[in-house]
Amino acid sequence: MMKTYLSVIRNCKVAQRWSFSHATRCAVSPSPFSSKWNCKRLMVRRLGTDIPTEDRNYYITTPIFYVNAAPHIGHLYSAVTADYLHRYKLLQGFNSRFVTGTDEHGLKIQQAANAAGQDPLSFCTKVSERFKYLFKSCHISYTDYIRTTEERHRCAVEHFWTVLQSKGFIYKGNYEGWYSTQDESFLTPSQVGDAKDSSGKEIKISLESGHKVEWMKEENYMFRLSEFRSRLQEWLEGNPRAVQPERFHHAVLQWLQEDLPDLSVSRQRSRLQWGIPVPGDLDQTIYVWLDALVNYLTVAGYPDSHSQWWRAAHHVVGKDILKFHAIYWPAFLLAADLPLPQTIHVHSHWTVGGKKMSKSLGNVVDPLERSQRFTIDGMRYFLLRQGVPDTDCDYDDDKVVKLLNAELTDSLGGLLNRCTAPSLNPAQVYPHFCSDSFPSQGTESHKGRAVDEDYHMLDAVRALPAVVEQHYESVHVYKALEAINRCVRQTNGFVQRHTPWKLGSGDGRDQLWLDTILHVSLECLRMYGTLLQPIVPEIADKLLSRLGVKPEEKSWAALNFLVKYQGKDCPFEGRALGPDTGVLFNRLERPNAEKGKPKKAKKATKVKS
User: Which of 208, 216, 322, 393 has a CA between 20 and 30 Å from the CA of residue 35?
Assistant: First the structure.
């Protein structure tokens, strides 16, 4: 066992840091604040030994999206982020559940429905169906879609409220302070500033969102949030990866430097009718955020059968709702004696021309239209390749075209076309590897035709799964995709360096070298295709199917690179390639191309057969 452990550490330089960083996400600690037990379980997982069944569960959620407006590119980014995590965990052999849905209660919805002349439920259903259609169209592989207007959710919320109240954490009192209807949020005086509206009238706004706030004074129910400040600090300080990236972890700790006032958790029913009534008090409506946050428990099976999945909960949220998820939600859970989420993955926003998307500016990016124009996998790849969790990212159509053409059409697609072309591989099989042509580095017989750059490429590709795994786990997907793209470029350089199209003219040694070049290149492509499955499922499946890889050979456990180089048998060697279904990714036209000059649609260049 120790020998195996040391081998793992040698083969992955980041393993020690990875283990520490990700311990709190791999199993439930005996307490919300201890990661020692998680570290032990993580080590077991990394060593490949049997893992308890409960540790094979993974529960990932998006925020539930507010139905006051149509979906935009930021909503799709949240969904694609959670989707890749779900697919990645399935590839690793986990039992994964993935939940998304819509948040349908609150004053904003009540007002929007009234303005549209519709009853609130019909209004919500119409918008919720738009989200569902977008996600289905973009291959978001959720296992459950929750709406807060569902009966199962109402039952969960009522039970959760009753638990908090029975434990003495909810009491009736008077709330007086600032409230933002658009944010559905209560604010302290330090969070409010002065501004002028479009008519020049002086108003108060939220300093964080810029939305108008109003002074509110009413009798309602309060949650004793003030009692949880020290426990929240303890949780965050004891679990440095509980909120990721690190910038947002620090932001939450900074918020906790100030006192936490008790939180109003209901509104008078005379003001807000569209919501779940407070159990036992029909004059009050449960605060929309308490209602909404419980959705994560609802889908897990709360209150009867939730522990299996809730112990493995991970959230993906935008930075604008961090406070609700990293302060209010953990405090509610602590009050209810429930485990805290393993990780809260936070991402930043998408802007256009450096400005926040808004209807008034006319710069809202329609994710469905763009996924139809640039393909579903194209948009998924762009968002995850360009999205940086801790900084805002700027969307531009031209940038999409340049990136996809360069990395999917030319680099990855060009490599596949080259290495499967009938002119180089007339038998259309996975070629044989010749150890005399590509001997192990450092052996006495190291007189093959491989050069130092080729061995460097092998080292990079062999280390790639560990690098990608590290970045997938930390939701720095752009770093994982950059690492893959860097290896793809190295493999293209390998093929270009040895010009296989000039080999095989009757010379037996040349033929062996040609087959070896193609074998190594196809092995690299197999690695890239397997690693890209969570990101671009259709493209990855097309690539792997062209290589003749069977469904059971596409898992994370099948990432055994170039076993012939290690003197082992390769199951792919001599196997027929899959059918040629055409170009891997069609070249996209620039959106600003001159009009009036019709051009034929370009496609990636294919090697002549």
Answer: 322
Single-letter amino acid code for the residue at 336: A
**CA atoms within 13 A of residue 310's CA, in its CB half-sphere:** 20
Residue 608 has a pLDDT of: 40
Task: Indicate the residue type of 156.
Answer: A
Q: How far is CA 93 from CA 55, 56, 311, 555, in A?
A: 11, 8, 18, 8
Both tokens assigned to 213: 């706030």
The tens digit of pLDDT for each residue in 303-325 reads 998 989 999 999 999 999 999 99
- Spell 26-44 as b/e; 16+ CB within 10 A means b: bbbbeebbebeebbebbbb
pTM: predicted TM-score of the whole model, two decimal places: 0.85
Q: Which residues contact 573 (CB under 8 A, 6 or more apart)?
A: 430, 431, 432, 433, 519, 564
Backbone φ, ψ for residue 507 (5° rounding): -85, 120
Q: Which long-range contacts (CB under 8 A, 24 or more apart) does 86-90 make?
A: 86/58, 86/60, 86/141, 86/142, 86/143, 86/534, 87/141, 87/533, 87/534, 87/537, 88/472, 88/534, 88/556, 89/58, 89/60
Interval 350-375: pLDDT, tens? 999 888 887 777 888 999 999 999 99
Structure tokens at 234: 């303890």
Check residue 57 and report its DSSP letter. E
As a whole number of Å, the end-to-end CA separation of the chain is 51
The rounded distance, in Å, linking the Cα atoms of 118 and 121 is: 8
Residue type, 119: D
Residue 3 banded pLDDT, cuts 50, 70, 90: very low
Tell me the backbone φ, ψ of residue 202, rounded to 5 degrees.
-75, 135
Q: What DSSP assignment string belongs to 482-505?
A: HHHHHHHHHHHHHHHHH-GGG--S
Angle formed at CA 81 by CA 76 and CA 83, multiple of 5 degrees = 90
Nearest alpha-carbon partner for 419 in 488, 342, 331: 488
Q: E strand or H helix at 84, and its extent?
A: helix 73-91
Residue 480 predicted with pLDDT over 90: yes
* Span 263-302, pLDDT tens digits: 999 999 988 999 999 999 999 999 999 999 999 999 999 9
Give the mean pLDDT of 243-247: 95
